[in-house]
Amino acid sequence: MVKIKVDKFLEWALAVLLAFMVLDVLWGVFTRYVAGNQSSWTDELARFLLIWVGVLGAAYASGKNIHIAIDILPNYLNKKNQKKLQYFIDSIIILFVLSVFVIGGLRYVYISLSLGQTSPALRLPMGVVYLIFPLSGILIVYYKINHFFQNK
To answer: Quick check: pTM over 0.70?
Structure first.
């Protein structure tokens, strides 16, 4: 039940972020070619939104198990060993995501916020931009743990 709500929230959030990105790029094109003077912030915002859509989309894909996978080995295994292999793969993913996305991401957010790093055009704290990494990491870990319990 919780997974369905998280999925729906991510679908909504990704759609909104993508819509904002499209509007931002259209505004940038309009101001550049019609108004003759491109807004200075449109490219930067599009980059940040692309980062958020990509990383949050990876978490969503992880929850739906729709990532690209090489399935040569599982095809040669029986169902019991396929399950064991999937548990092993999910465990490796959890360890990687916890160490890189969550812990590394939180450190990066902390460092960029403590140094007062801001983006050039929007003057947005870069820690806000980088916050998507630990957030997505937490979502991926949640999805993988949920996958453990669903496939018992």
So the answer is: yes
Sole residue written with tokens 């870069």: 126
What is the residue extent of each domain of the chain?
Answer: 2-150
Asked if residues 41 and 121 have their Cβ atoms less than 8 Å apart, the reply is yes
Beta bridge partners of 118: 125
Cβ-based neighbour number of residue 59 at 10 Å = 24
112, pLDDT greater than 90: yes
In whole angstroms, how far apart are CA 16 and each of 26, 83, 94? Answer: 15, 36, 28
Contact predicate 29/43, CB 8 Å: no
10 Å CB burial of residue 143 (0-12, 13-18, 19+) is buried
Question: 34-48, 51-65, 110-124, 127-141: lowest mean pLDDT where?
Answer: 34-48
| CA separation for the pair 119, 45 (Å, rounded) | 10
Q: What does the pLDDT read at residue 40?
A: 86
Distances (CA, A) of 124 to 57, 68, 108, 134, 145: 22, 34, 15, 18, 34
| Residue 48: predicted pLDDT | 98
